[in-house]
Amino acid sequence: MKITLICIPTIDEGGLLSDISMHFGKAPYFTFITFEDGEIKNIDVIESFGKHKGGSKTPAEIILSSKADVLISGNLGSKAVSMLRDSGIEVFSGASGKVKDALKEWKSGTLKIADETSCDEKDC
Question: What is the pTM of this model?
């Protein structure tokens, strides 16, 4: 049995129908999807209280504490990419649209793996 926890920064609490937040650091919500043997088993949405919103953790630290295996994001900065990858999280960037669409891309292997040059500077 293979269980994967995926995190996707989103703009609302809409679960699979939520739009992906294009700015990782300012995402108002994080949608967590638990995949077990290729099927969605659970969806949790949490409000982000990161440093941009007066919280004590960076968005990357929130993801690290969640025990997520995968992050699928629109854009994110090189510092976040390094921190997450160094902690063993697979990081994908360039996602847009709805959460359900990004999941389909992830399952089909068409999402781009993020690296330190993945960020479009005007969006990060």
Answer: 0.89
Residues counted in the chain: 124
| Bridge partners (DSSP) listed for residue 75 | 23
- 39's enclosing H/E stretch is strand 39-47
For tokens 């967590």, the residue is 32
Q: Which strand (E) or helix (H) includes residue 31?
A: strand 29-36
pLDDT at 48: 86
Return the CA Rg of the chain. 13
- Amino acid found at 103: L
What is the C-alpha to C-alpha distance for residues 100 and 111, in angstroms, rounded to an integer? 13
**Domain 1-47+78-117: assigned CATH number:** 3.30.420.130
- The domain ranges of the chain are 1-47+78-117
- Euclidean distance between CA atoms 11 and 30, whole angstroms: 8
| 6-40: pLDDT as tens digits | 999 999 999 999 999 998 988 999 999 999 988 99
For residue 19, the SS3 value is strand
